[in-house]
Design brief:
Elements lengths: L2 H9 L2 E9 L3 H12 L4 E4 L13 E2 L1 H7 L5 H7 L1 E3 L1 E6 L2 E7 L10 E3 L2 H14 L3 E3 L4 E6 L4 E5 L4 E9 L6 H6 L3 E17 L9 E7 L2 E8 L3 E8 L8 H11 L8 E17 L3 E2 L2 E3 L5 E2 L7 H20 L4 H28 L6 H11 L3 H12 L5
Parallel strand pairs: 1-2, 1-11, 2-8, 5-13, 11-18
Antiparallel strand pairs: 3-7, 4-7, 5-6, 9-10, 10-11, 12-15, 12-16, 13-14, 14-15, 16-19, 17-18
Helix pairs in contact: 2-5, 2-8, 3-8, 8-9
């Protein structure tokens, strides 16, 4: 930066806020909603223009809905989503593991199927109603901190002085990197293909059930979404950048239902990605904290990612309210409470992913063992509690 630029920037007054949130995804917006509901002055920034995000997450679990209920969010989401009361693991047409959610002790005894774009829209609307400010496109360039505040320089040249800053800016978090916090873990060798499709209405797959097919040819998930759409996720050696109808049809023909063929009528949107399993070495560095994918990433198996991020946000919101009132220990308690849960979720997702991507020679044996283990009621009940998030109450 030249001396003239530095002098000009020094003349720009620093905006004052209680909490600066970097990242306006589900985690950042949930945190802004939780803070604003308690009267905390909150500014959110995001590098992407509104509506520029792709929608990977499609599941909101019971525990997440319980936590969002006091914030006035759950009823809006429930009205917009599809209620899936069952999750099954199958080998083509044979059910290996049935998991029922409708007997869980919660007012949300189901998995709510709704796109991430809708979840973000509802959270943004509620955060704005409560007084949060969202600035986009705008990114964090640099920051420094002292004993009383964080001083952030933004991409538009403005400066923000906040009592605390939260990195909710995803796996490639600028906040985490600039804070010097390690992101420990690795990457799976397989790639994943994702597509939202319209299927023929021939009853090949249920309309209110999420199915994980563990076929000899590989894994594919078929999940219903509102509006007659189905989300397809599959592991492949080398996924195409934009899967077309023929590609998705081949996946379903070789891995999905066999007795009645699931017919792909149209692909509405598709993508590919690789999956990481990583966790931040720490959730806090002074007045800077991490939440959501900035703190942990893992396989989409079980649909836990966005849910754990939102649950981070609610817990961090409570901790920040206490810290702003003088209880600095609340922030250490946030890490002590949430990091072990992230580790548990990462372990569960890793086990599911490794089962899904087992070597071809072992897939038949894997399916036999799964069907035997699933006959134990306590096993199915435990999986329902873990997947719904109620185990982390």
């Amino acid at each position: 930066m030249s001396q003239i630029q530095a002098e000009i920037q020094a003349q720009i007054p620093a905006a004052q806020t209680d909490v600066l949130i970097v990242g306006a995804g589900p985690t950042g917006l949930a945190l802004a909603t939780a803070l604003s509901a308690q009267g905390v002055k909150t500014l959110i920034i995001d590098a992407q223009a509104e509506g520029a995000n792709t929608s990977r997450a499609a599941v909101v679990h019971a525990r997440t809905l319980e936590l969002l209920e006091p914030l006035g969010v759950s009823d809006r989401l429930v009205a917009l989503g599809l209620h899936a009361k069952r999750f099954t693991v199958r080998d083509r047409d044979r059910i290996l593991v049935p998991i029922e959610f409708d007997r869980l002790p919660t007012v949300y005894p189901y998995t709510l199927m709704v796109s991430q774009a809708v979840t973000e829209s509802v959270l943004l609307e509620r955060a704005s109603e409560l007084g949060a400010t969202v600035r986009r496109p705008c990114s964090l360039q640099s920051f420094s901190q002292d004993d009383i505040s964080v001083h952030a320089t933004l991409s538009d040249g403005s400066q923000v002085q906040a009592r605390f800053m939260v990195g909710a800016d995803g796996m490639h978090s600028v906040v985490r990197q600039q804070a010097g916090i390690a992101f420990e873990g690795g990457t799976y060798g397989e790639s994943f293909v994702l597509a939202d499709v319209r299927l023929g209405a021939n009853g090949a797959v249920p309309e209110n059930e999420v199915i994980l097919f563990f076929s000899p040819k590989g894994m594919v998930v078929v999940a219903p979404l509102p509006g007659g759409i189905h989300r397809i996720v599959a592991t492949v050696d080398d996924a195409p950048e934009q899967p077309d109808a023929a590609y998705v049809q081949a996946l379903l023909d070789t891995r999905g239902p066999k007795a009645t063929r699931a017919v792909v009528r149209a692909v509405l949107w598709g993508s590919r990605f690789r999956v990481h399993h990583r966790i931040a070495a720490a959730y806090r560095q002074g007045r800077v904290l991490l939440a959501g994918d900035a703190a942990h990433v893992h396989s989409p198996a079980g649909g836990q990612g966005m849910n754990i991020g939102i649950q981070d946000a609610v817990a961090l919101g409570e901790a920040l309210v206490s810290a702003l009132a003088g209880d600095d220990g609340a922030l250490d308690a946030y890490e002590a409470r949430r990091r072990p849960i992230a580790q548990q979720v990462l372990t569960l997702a890793d086990r599911l992913t490794r089962m899904a991507t087992a070597p071809r020679a072992l897939r038949g044996l894997r399916n036999v063992l799964l069907s035997l283990v699933a006959r134990i009621p306590n096993v199915r009940r435990k999986l329902a509690w873990q997947l719904s998030g109620l185990a982390y109450r």
